[in-house]
Design goal:
The protein is of the alpha/beta class. Helix content is 34%, strand content 19%. It has 25 helices and 28 strands. Helix 14 crosses helix 16 and helix 19 crosses helix 20. The two termini are 43 Å apart.
Amino acid sequence: ELILTQTRRHLLLSLRGSCGLYIYIYIYTRTHTQQQQPARVPLLPFSVVRRMSAQQAVFKIAKISSYPKSFSSSSTRRVSGVLRRSFSSVTTKATASMSLPGKKLENIVKPVPSDIEVAQAATPLRISHVLEQCKISMEEYEPYGHYKAKISDKISKKMTEENKGHYVVVAGITPTPLGEGKSTTTIGLVQALGAHLEKFAVACIRQPSMGPTFGIKGGAAGGGYSQVIPMEEMNMHLTGDIHAIGIATNLIAAAVDTRMFHENTQSDEALFKRLFPPNKKGERKIARNMTRRLKRLGIEKTNPDEWSEKERSKFVRLDLDADKVTWRRVVDMNDRFLRQITIGESPTEKGQMRQTGFDITVASEVMAVLAMCTSLEDMDERFGKMIVGTSKSGEAVNCDDLGVTGAVTALMLEAIKPTMMQTLEGTPVLIHAGPFANIATGNSSVIADKIALSMVGKDGFVVTEAGFGADIGLEKFVNLKCRSSGLKPNCAVIVATVRALKCHGGGPAVQAGKPLDFAYLEENVNMVKDGCSNLTRHIENTRSFGIPVVIAINAFPTDTPAEHEAIRQAALAAGASAVEICTHHAEGGLGATELGKAVTRVCEENASASEFKLGYSTEDMSIEEKVEHIAKEYYRAGGVEFSEQAKEKIALFTEQGFGHLPVCMAKTQYSFSHDANMKGAPAGFTLPIGDLRLSAGAGFLVPLVGAFPTIPGLPTRPAYYEISVDTETEQIMGLS
């Protein structure tokens, strides 16, 4: 028997034999009208209970609905809390003790096991419990298994200036191919704020792509004791958003090529009859997905039989120029041999071959729309505006013209809802949109951030992640995401490592899959100081947006205090508001508590975010001027050189009315320049722009710096060599 005492209440918990589990609840009141009321609550069969972890059993107990009528809902919540706390130190795993939301980790193992070993040793909470603590009702989420749930995008509309929390963006210095722990720091910071500093904190991160997961970099769930769990479920498919994006993108590609095929092999009259087949009454109906094109063409007659021959021809013939089709197929894998392909080689396609290629799914415009949209209506409208190519007369052809918009929106109906999971310390995480800030926006979605800001309330914290270095991920966060959302960040965290700064200070090349050079394993303060030029520029760029900066030094065991002090001095001299050493990989939220305190202080001091500003005006600058502004102001280029192809695209897009859009640069993440070998803080170089792409639905133009590939390749020894399944336990092994 275990007796738990709470103010004015005593609870007696007992297990009786194998026939069942019983709870006796005695409620003591001090009113004159009520007497002591014992209440016996029937519970679960022991055969069920013994298969549960202690925590799972407690949650089942706490949610039993057959309490006596005199037992109020507030009392139910109190009993629930007492029962849960009584088991908070219990776990079925040996490596770490999984605590409740906002509770600290226990029994941390040193040295730190592999990421997947740490994750699999934890006992996650049922996602319904996490959602209950976040005050999200059952009507506002859909469970996907035990540990994930889709959250209604409509919650984002609850956010107002009066109820939103503090907004923190995490970026990094220019990374090495090994990554510098930005996702890990994002999770560690939220664990520190929620589990150790008693703040309501939510992390907003991106869904991992299968490309890096099986390639070099691995997954994107964080690492060590600062992870999202279950990490296998996050890194492998999650709730299928990226698959939906791939299908939607490839549906559009199929629609483009099929439309060109049919237009090239049929007359206008034949096209009309097939697009508007008569029903049993002989009537021709206009499909819903055709109405936007009709409106754009100025055809007001609702009966197709009443259209003139000119109107029929105008509607049925898009007349796409095969050489100016810009829409590409996608696959969520690093497959370099799909960068350029020839399609239509089968005899059934009647010689209609053309050159095209694949992008990685997360670099698609459908993904970009998902990241930038603010509602289902907005997403649908943006999908309709996506340009697939140019007609032979020079007009832009979009998805509304193809009549495919509604189908794309249907495929993306579930994907617009962010997925909620949890960290190792039980704090909530919203996962939405995709990575690859080098070739895409690389930020969590606007919808996820707004949901989180409304969840945490005025004194809470939303920590959102921007991909790669602050020169690309954070620049796009400001000039694209904040421009679209209207949100203003209160603080930026820039993650730095001794390893990366040594690389920028003249250290040997860092290559994935190869052992680190000895220079990275011994103290070299001067090399770190030289590399701090990279850190300084990132701080300067971030502060130019009016965002105060906190530096998080992601500490490694081989670092020394002298190296950390060199970073601290350089960062403070560059204008950082604080510099904190973090050991969250090894210690979870405890290792990021000082970072959490610094972020809290900076956010409170900058609560109004009154100095925040966008980097440039879209209306007053040409496409060339916007590209030059980013190149010179943030990369410190001496000038920009546009290829003939890029110049032609600029002229075309300007003529088509897209010159006012902001730009999303696609360039290497390993340097401020176009050359990955130019480390540190290069300046005065000429930035080459090889091509330009249009993402009208997402709302930006994409200049390709040099010959930059939009689908990566696999290395000589990919990560898939380590990944397998234990067929007895059905556990995934080797995932990182």
